[in-house]
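Annotated sample (chain length 343).
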Amino acid sequence: MRKIKVLVVEDSMLFRELLVRKLNEDEGIEVVAAARDPFEARDMIIKHQPDVMTLDIELPRMDGIEFLRKLMPQYPLPVVMISSLSDRVFDAMNAGAVEFVAKPSSGNRKDIEEFITTELPVKIKIASVAKLRRNAKAEASAIQMYATPGRKCNLLAIGASTGGTEATAELLKDLHSDLPGIVIVQHMPAGFTELYANRLNDRCELEVREAKNGDVVRPGLALLAPGGEQQMQVVYRDGEYKILLRKAPKVNGHCPSVDVLFHSVAKAAGKNAMGIILTGMGGDGAKGLLAMRNAGARTIGQDESTCVVYGMPKVAYECGAVEYQEKLPNIAGRVYSIMNRRP
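Output written by the structure step:
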């Protein structure tokens, strides 16, 4: 297989040179060009036709988000954002970026080199096979009320990865505060989950916040698992569903893991739960969703046509975990249909 051609856009000369040198050490990647601002990047895109571009947000002459908004309609290209801790990264995802990585907070050269040689190449390789997001709303079929009996549902669990920041946001905007409590795992670095939850809270009818240990899962509230070193589970205690956060190893390469959450929901809520698996690379969540379905829960998977990466939903579908496969804009309608309510 040929190497992935990468364009690096970074204004710091030292960091730019380090990115180029270290990324070129990966046998699957070739940095074909490096630019210090969007104007140089534009010319290099035309000249070198890269497969993936890494892009900083803070750039001279034009910031990375504005560049994305101008670039994507004319020259769609998978983009990985390299960002410090800021909610502006979600503006970049909304503008068309497919992945992001967090810059090491310390200036320690060892930490920076480890980040460039481990985390960043993985994100570049994921981006290289990602499908660029289109207007899924325009492709959606009409949301219908299906002739299914109403189903008791006390808990809704959602899992997502690559492409999930936009997919989860779109889904939550279509859900209202009349629904049971919602628990979410979105693969994301530590620190960004709180920013993401706050952003969703400002844009959704639901209350959305980062989960804390001991939180009660109640109607109208969506709790997002914190990124970092803790796995999130749901337990049933004293007549309530509660959040259990504990420091634990990665599962399927992730902490928090969708599988860990889904398995706990299968045990805690059984047939009174609903599980939704959205876009993402790999297979995290498939086994947990199957456990939920086997316990009697209703399950929904995002379809291939609206996924940025049809990985997690594909594995879940192929192992029999997905009861209904839906386009992203139709998932909320399916949720309400299962409970025999109007959206």
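Annotation: The CA atoms of residues 294 and 321 lie 8 Å apart.
Annotation: Residues 109-129 form the longest helix (21 residues).
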